[in-house]
Design goal:
heterodimer, A: alpha/beta, five-stranded mixed β-sheet, three-stranded antiparallel β-sheet, 10 strands, B: 257 residues, four-stranded antiparallel β-sheet, 24% strand, globular
Chain lengths: 514, 257
């Protein structure tokens, strides 16, 4: 827990900063748009409609599509204006959260202005106010409490949605939740939930005081609420500024969203810090599609990917080389040629996709290989992680073995193993290094037709670091062959089964490394 | 002071005001009298261009109102209507001072003018300056509204049933106050009402409207003695009956009505 508590101020500040900036920008966009609607009714249907449509997009999806959307925007802007936008990190989260904040503020601005007593409007015109004076001196002041009530609704939404910005690379309290769910650290999940709920209540309370102050024209309350927001904003800004200062020039290590990746990212960061003069920082829980793009754009510098994954999803070649080395060489060459990415080390283990069944069932039915499974498949149910069933590896396995399962269910990879052990599914897409395979008496089936490619764990180094930082490359080379499958499985089990933190497990490994 | 010529307003197919012409002399109070929907409020609002005329001309002090931007025109014309529409977020002093503020007067001049007007409408400035509109009675709100209409030192004032929602005693006091104020300031007033007694009491002259057209324009005496048609006679029957009943009581305290 102490590991998590140490992270709390940073996560909290980042979460608060995301929320306040999104609300600020959202308000700055929505209020003028709302005013426009009250002046030109023709804009009402398109603007309110657009805001409503955005609202219906699930927030997780809205955040995720900002990554390719920003990449596209950046690709368009860069040759024309010389502006390049980071597609992962705070920016996509901010854009998505800002869009998310618009609807309640926009709607309340329109309702607030439309709700001003017509007699007051007539009086405003009658005393000789121009349209602008009428808006600024009468309509906006009278609509303000309603607008602020909209901001209050948006505040609660945005604090909640901000917890989902972890997979696009923005730090938030969601980091506790995402990593906690993956590593079965429920204390961290709770911490993330409680902290974000508390933050939502706090901000809601402050904005409520502002709203009441405006409605009842109590200057003291308005000043107190505005002061509290300013203090919160300044505190978060300062903390984030300090964190950014500390991170500037640091080597950024990325990780996907499962235990092994958390442990490895901590190990890579530790190696960089102990063997070079540089600082390193881990950006965890990135979506696996986001990661490779981030590496090619030098938004992260280092992460671990698997030769088979790269081979299947990026190289898209039909003929599988005969051996593990062949795949690795082909992938390495492609990475260097296409993206200038260097492979600093092969860690020494494979983490392959594998189909796993319950040990007892395997013994009872005599299941040894995927081929043995095929005739039984129509009566069985298979579970896979979110991406498994759309991955080319699955398509290849499915057609090579003629597998037709009764049902297939996507679930979080952290839940698959126990779902299998409890009999809720019969087959899962396991990762071969997962500690729970042994712990829960599961059986990995052999790929007798060699359809699934080898999955050597490779340390990928982005083009910029590969070019400019030979010390980092050299430090990471030390990890070549340093972790065998058993060692990796033990480290995963230490987190998943024994409830230790990935950081602690990584520190133990690093202590033994020298 | 106010010249209205062939003033016309159509709302879609409806003709709300039909080629109306009349003058208001300097210092005169002209009442526009008629039933609801006869076009009197629309006529009033075309004078300060809260409603734009479909056709016709309005001149104030010889200047055609269509040549002045609407909001600048309205700063020179006092305007007060039945719902008053005090600005709920501003105190009494800010409400009264709004037109002078728009005219760019300095703060000291505005403060003096506000106090002067509050006294004129019989509200003690010391007690009322800082009050919010929602803490005032209906009569007090009407008086603040009247003070606001007069704040920019207008020569022309438009009043649309300004005393409509008041109890009879308050209405009577304010009607008399209005007569004193306009005599004191030499205001030219266009006054809309559907209350025949009020029209007879306040009007130097009365213009009777029916379906957007002028039926008769004359002094109260002329309208009472020589109504142009049945409708005018009917309108004038009410003040006549009031007067007769009251006169009978005054002449013989024991007579029954």
């Amino acid at each position: 827990m102490s590991d998590e508590l140490a992270l709390l101020p940073g996560y909290l500040a980042a979460h608060l900063e995301l929320t306040l900036v999104a609300l600020g920008v959202g308000t700055a966009l929505s209020v003028p748009a709302g005013i426009l609607i009250t002046r030109r009714r023709a804009f009402e249907a398109p603007l309110l409609g657009l805001a409503s449509v955005i609202q219906t997009i699930p927030s997780l999806a809205l955040l995720a599509i900002m990554v390719p959307a920003l990449a596209l925007a950046s690709a368009w802007l860069e040759p024309r204006l010389g502006i390049s936008l980071p597609a992962i990190g705070a920016l996509p989260a901010l854009v998505a959260l800002t869009l998310y904040a618009t609807l309640p503020i926009l709607r309340n601005t329109v309702v607030g202005i439309a709700g001003v007593d017509p007699a007051v409007i007539e009086a405003a015109r009658g005393v000789g106010m121009s349209g602008r004076e009428q808006l600024l001196r009468v309509e906006l002041p009278l609509a303000l409490p309603v607008v602020v009530a909209g901001v209050r609704t948006a505040t609660v939404w945005v604090v909640g949605a901000a917890t989902l910005s972890t997979p696009v690379g923005a730090t938030s309290l969601g980091n506790f939740i995402f990593s906690g769910l993956q590593t079965r650290n429920f204390a961290a999940v709770w911490l993330g939930c409680v902290a974000s709920a508390a933050l939502a209540l706090l901000l809601d309370g402050v904005v409520r005081v502002l709203e009441v102050g405006l409605r009842e024209r109590r200057r003291g309350l308005v000043a107190a609420a505005a002061g509290a927001l300013a203090v919160l904003g300044a505190g978060a800004g300062f903390e984030c500024f300090a964190a950014r200062g500390a991170a500037a020039g640091a080597v950024t290590v990325g990780s996907k969203t499962f235990t092994e990746q958390y442990v490895l990212s901590e190990i890579l960061a530790g190696v960089v810090e102990s063997r070079t003069q540089r600082r390193a920082r881990a950006v965890q829980s990135l979506g696996s599609t986001v990661l490779f793009d981030a590496l090619t754009q030098n938004e992260i510098d280092v992460y671990v990917d698997y030769s088979g994954t790269l081979w299947a999803t990026l190289l898209r070649r039909s003929r599988l080389p005969d051996d593990r080395e062949g795949v690795r060489r082909e992938v390495e060459r492609w990475l260097a040629d296409e993206h200038g990415i260097a492979v600093a080390a092969a860690l020494g283990f494979e983490n392959t996709y594998a189909l796993a069944v319950r040990g007892a069932q395997a013994r009872e039915l005599g299941l040894e290989s995927i081929g043995d499974l095929a005739p039984l498949a129509p009566s069985l149910e298979i579970g896979g992680d979110y991406e498994f069933f759309v991955r080319p590896e699955w398509k290849a396995v499915e057609s090579a073995y003629g597998l037709r399962f009764r049902a297939q269910r996507s679930m979080d990879s952290s839940l698959m193993y126990e779902a299998l052990a409890r009999g809720e599914v019969d087959v899962i897409s396991a990762f071969s290094t997962d500690g729970r395979i042994a712990a829960l008496d599961l059986r990995v089936l052999a790929d007798d037709r060699r359809v699934i490619p080898p999955y050597d764990a490779l340390v990928l180094v982005g083009a910029r670091i590969a070019r400019e930082a030979p010390d980092v490359l050299a430090a990471l080379r030390r990890l070549d062959g340093a972790i065998d499958a058993d060692a990796m499985r033990r480290m995963n089990a230490a987190v998943d089964r024994d409830g230790r933190s990935p950081g602690a497990v990584a520190r133990e490994f690093l202590a033994r490394l020298d | 002071m106010i010249e209205v010529r062939e003033l016309t307003r159509r709302f879609g197919a409806t003709l709300a005001v039909d080629r109306l012409s009349f003058d208001v002399a300097r210092g005169e109070l002209l009442v526009l009298l008629g039933r609801s929907g006869c076009g009197k409020t629309t006529t009033l609002k075309m004078v300060n261009r809260l409603v734009e005329p479909s056709a016709g001309v309005v001149r104030i002090g010889g200047e055609e109102t269509a040549r002045v931007p609407g909001h600048l025109l309205r700063r020179r014309i006092g305007y007060c209507f039945q719902q008053v529409g005090l600005f709920p977020h501003l105190c009494v002093a800010e409400n009264v001072g709004v037109t002078p503020t728009l005219l760019g007067w300095d703060a000291g001049r505005i403060r003096r003018r506000v106090d002067e007007l509050l006294e004129l409408v019989e509200l003690d400035p010391a007690r009322f300056r800082e009050r919010r509109p929602d803490s005032l009675s209906g009569g007090q709100q009407q008086r603040v509204g009247l003070a606001r209409a007069l704040a920019g030192e207008p020569e022309v004032v438009l009043l649309d049933e300004p005393f409509g929602a008041l109890d009879p005693l308050t209405r009577d006091r304010l009607q008399r106050r209005l007569q004193e104020i306009r005599a004191q300031l030499g205001l030219s007033v266009l006054f809309v009402t559907h209350d025949m007694v009020e029209a007879v009491l306040l009007g130097d002259r009365i213009a009777v409207l029916e379906a957007g057209a002028l039926v008769q324009l004359g002094t109260p005496r002329e309208l009472l003695r020589r109504p142009a048609n049945e409708a005018v006679a009917e309108l004038m029957a009410t003040p006549r009956r009031h007067a007769e009943v009251v006169a009978r009581f005054l002449a013989d305290p024991d007579a029954s009505p």
